[in-house]
Specification:
By secondary structure, the chain is an all-alpha fold. The chain has one domain (9-178): Tetracycline Repressor, domain 2. It has ten helices and no strands. Helix 1 packs across helix 2 and helix 4 packs across helix 5 (76-89).
């Protein structure tokens, strides 16, 4: 009877999540994960003969973490600010989620209607008292600005200034409500 693995599939996914959080998504290899977990590559390669499966499962874990972080914000403004703050606090994880090529070739509309955005879009719909389709139209320009800020911050292109960002987001939201 083969020995029972001491490093579980779940521990490998969690380890990959932590590794990406600390070192970035480019560092996720069977060897680096084995070193990070303190095991050999054998159990990793046994559970994940194709590392793309591990990346996908780790992406799901990171996306859940990100969604929980954002949705803790309450109203739409706070969710947007939390999205940007996430990029400041977790730049490597942000880049894994949004700048690792996963969404190549998709439009902004495709991204807004993706399953990953459903919870946020539902919250926008409820908060603004709009049907989901109208909420998506309201949400689209805000997403472009919020994601732009977050991307610039995650890549150290601009300094994180929450007060200035809050003012800009409020002005945009007010303009959308008038328009």
């Amino acid at each position: 009877m083969p020995k029972k693995p001491t490093t579980t599939k779940e521990a490998m996914i969690e380890g990959a999540f932590r590794l990406i959080r600390e070192k970035g998504h480019d560092c996720l290899t069977a060897r680096s994960l084995a070193a990070f977990l303190g095991c050999s590559t054998q159990p990793i390669m046994y559970q994940f003969p194709n590392l793309d499966i591990l990346r996908d499962l780790t992406y799901q874990r990171a996306d859940e973490f990100h969604s929980e972080y954002i949705l803790a914000g309450g109203d739409l403004l706070e969710m947007g600010l939390r999205y940007i703050r996430f990029a400041e606090e977790e730049p490597k994880l942000f880049r894994f989620l949004f700048q690792s090529g996963r969404f190549s070739g998709l439009s902004l509309e495709d991204l807004i209607k993706s399953p990953e955005t459903a919870d946020v879009l539902s919250a926008v719909s409820e908060e603004e008292g709009l049907p989901v389709a109208d909420a998506a139209a309201y949400f689209e320009p805000l997403v472009a600005v919020v994601h732009g800020y977050a991307s610039l911050i995650a890549n150290n292109a601009i300094k994180y200034d929450p007060d200035a960002i809050r003012k800009v987001l409020i002005a945009i939201a007010e303009g959308l409500e008038r328009g």
